[in-house]
Specification:
The structure holds two protein chains of two kinds. By secondary structure, chain A is α/β, with parallel strands linked by helices. Chain A is built from seven helices and 16 strands. In chain A, helix 4 runs parallel beside helix 5 (211-224). The chains are: A alpha/beta, B alpha/beta.
Chain lengths: 298, 325
């Protein structure tokens, strides 16, 4: 799908917001992603996966564009992604200007299933791992869920999009490793204290961030016997389940065991380890039941 | 009004006739498989076809070559399995596949619905395994031909890759030849001293066609962690970076054997594909480009059609090997 750059704004020293204009906006579910190609050149060769952060034009925005001379209000229609400059591809992206052409593939992958959401929702994000949560937070709010966001980064410069979440008026707790804002420490420490707080209701955890953080989230969630879903990131070539490049090791589980666990019942861990196999982040994910992943191999 | 409808219908039929004539000029026969055009999708880059069906019309393709199949399902290698390199990518997927049984039961029926040729890429850990897979596929409905991947190690005899040793190539191709009546394409490894030696051996052992090249062996290192970037340490390089190497090997091989050759290696555009045909390939396989653009194979096919029209080329035969040296 050919698209236009609407805007490309630096929001923090290493983070950008990219507005992508689409003639027709497909229906994106929270957690889904796109594969983006920014050039016809062969280096960089492959598309890059990006979670869809916001849908543009779904409602009138404060600075909606106005076509001069026509006097009618035209909404920018499309999607917004957040990206962090980490390598060759994202460095090239920083040079994108309004009107530049892009090639996107999507929506791809599965999504956060609200049918899995029981009790209160805890979203936990590390740095750019915030990307899939804006659409989710919007949905959760619309459906009347009680939600909290635990958002952590190295410093105050690693909390992209924080203001957007503040505008949603949801409960937010922040941590930074250097203590420049919020509680000093790791975001997983916030999760531990959240789960220690007496709460009669079951809490469902959604997590996205660096692999080390996700491993710890899974461990904490398991200890608390809380359902936990993670959105994984991985190097991908195709994004459509063909190259088998974005493999993660998963534990095989019977659907019966899954249901038991979703109901909050304890099942013997040994039964979960019956047979392992590789799952593809692009097609089977990016959202996985955390219990499904062999974390030792991530 | 009835007359104008008739007239419109006549115009449509004429246009269709012209279109069919153009398509006819792109048809080519490889190893006894009549292809409507010379564009195939390379094994391992097109899944089992179904992954790409939402993005392109499979009916348009000359052939679909599916992900390499083995006797038993294979899990594949530990991640990371892919890494991008300059104008290319390294992969160490490890031949993950569903196994021949599931392939025939669950994957083949979908592909049978399309008007394209299904060529099944396959491999084994031993000569016996190669033969067994070939036998199963021989009796499966809807398989137009087989493509043998000989770039895998012989686990029974010192783990040496079949396709890097002329004697082992001869034995494995000869044995598979006796196990199937289907057209047999042998896919050659470029990781050899002289590819024409292996090509001739495969020809003498009964191959009907050769496809080349498979990926070039390579690796990449992360200087910060001092670790290899692939879980398997080494992998196979593909993409535009390998095209010059592949072209040279196709050119050399085309001069050395009488078998039809299918050119593979970094084809991203119609011009790339035509380069391969000029040096002697009767057909081409589009590989890594499918990852970059799921419609790449169709765009390349259309580009070849335009080139034929522009240069008044009437048949694929006319172009193949017409390099001016």
């Amino acid at each position: 799908m050919i698209a236009d750059v609407l805007y490309n704004r630096k929001i923090l020293p290493a983070y950008y917001r990219l507005g992508i204009g689409l003639k027709k906006v497909p229906s994106f579910k929270p957690g889904q992603f796109i594969m983006l190609r920014i050039t016809e050149q062969v280096d960089p060769l492959l598309r890059r996966p990006f979670g869809v952060y916001r849908i543009l034009g779904s409602r009138v925005r404060g600075q909606g564009s106005r076509v001069r001379g026509q006097g009618s209000r035209v909404r920018e229609q499309g999607i917004e992604i957040l990206y962090k400059v980490v390598g060759k591809g994202t460095r090239l992206m920083t040079a994108l200007k309004p009107g530049d052409k892009l090639d996107i593939l999507g929506p791809l992958g599965n999504s956060f299933e609200l049918s899995h959401s029981t009790g209160d929702i805890i979203m936990i994000a590390g740095g750019i791992g915030i990307a899939p949560f804006y659409l989710l937070a919007e949905r959760l709010k619309a459906e009347g869920f009680r939600q909290r966001l635990l958002f952590g980064g190295r410093s105050k410069d690693d909390l992209p999009g924080l203001d957007d979440f503040k505008k949603l008026k949801i409960n937010i707790k922040i941590s930074t490793q250097d203590g420049s804002v919020g509680k000093k420490g790791l975001v997983t420490d916030l999760l531990k204290s959240e789960l220690r707080t007496p709460n009669s209701k079951l809490q469902t955890i959604y997590a996205c961030g660096p692999k080390g953080m996700l491993k710890e989230v899974e461990r904490v969630a398991k200890t608390a016997n809380a359902p936990c879903y993670v959105s994984l990131d991985n190097v991908m070539a195709c994004g459509i389940g063909a190259c088998l490049g974005c493999a993660v090791k998963s534990r095989a589980q019977s659907s019966e065991l899954r249901v038991q666990r979703l109901k909050g019942l304890k099942s013997p861990l040994s039964a979960l380890h019956s047979e392992s196999s590789y799952k593809m982040v692009c097609k089977d994910g990016p959202v996985f039941d955390a219990w499904e992943i062999e974390w030792e191999e991530v | 009004m009835g007359r104008s409808v008739k007239k419109a219908e006549g115009t449509r039929l004429k246009a269709e006739g012209r279109k069919n004539k153009l398509l006819a000029s792109l048809s080519v026969n490889i190893a006894g498989i009549q292809l409507k055009n010379p564009v195939m999708t390379a094994s391992g880059t097109f899944g089992y076809g179904e992954e790409f069906a939402p993005y392109l019309d499979l009916n348009k393709l000359g052939a679909v070559i599916v992900k390499g199949i083995s006797l038993k399902p294979r899990q594949g290698n530990p991640p990371p399995r892919i890494v991008e390199t300059a104008a290319g990518m390294l992969n160490s997927i490890g031949l993950q596949n569903v196994g021949v049984e599931v392939f025939v039961e669950k994957k083949l029926p979908f592909l049978r619905k399309f008007d394209t040729k299904v060529i099944v890429n396959f491999f084994g850990d031993s000569i016996d395994e190669y033969c067994e897979v070939a036998k199963v596929l021989d009796s499966a409905e809807g398989v137009a031909g087989l493509e043998m991947n000989i770039s895998c190690p012989n686990k029974q005899e010192g783990w040496l890759e079949f396709g890097t040793n002329p004697e082992m190539t001869s034995r494995v191709v000869g044995a598979v030849r006796k196990s199937t009546k289907l057209p047999l394409i042998v896919k050659l490894s470029p990781n050899v001293t002289d590819i024409t030696i292996i090509a001739k051996v495969a020809q003498d052992a009964g191959a009907d066609a050769l496809s080349l090249i498979n990926t070039l062996s390579g690796m990449a290192v992360d200087v910060n962690t001092r670790r290899p970037k692939l879980g398997n340490i080494i992998g196979g390089l593909s993409g535009p970076a390998i095209k010059p190497v592949a072209l040279k090997m196709v050119w050399q091989t085309a001069k050395a054997v009488r078998l039809p050759i299918i050119g593979i290696g970094g084809i991203m555009t119609a011009a790339d594909a035509i380069e391969f045909m000029l040096v002697g390939a009767s057909a081409v396989q589009v590989g890594t480009a499918n990852f970059v653009d799921p419609q790449a194979s169709i765009k390349i096919l259309e580009g070849i059609g335009d080139y034929f029209k522009k240069n008044k080329i009437k048949s694929v035969k006319e172009l193949v090997g017409s390099l001016r040296v």
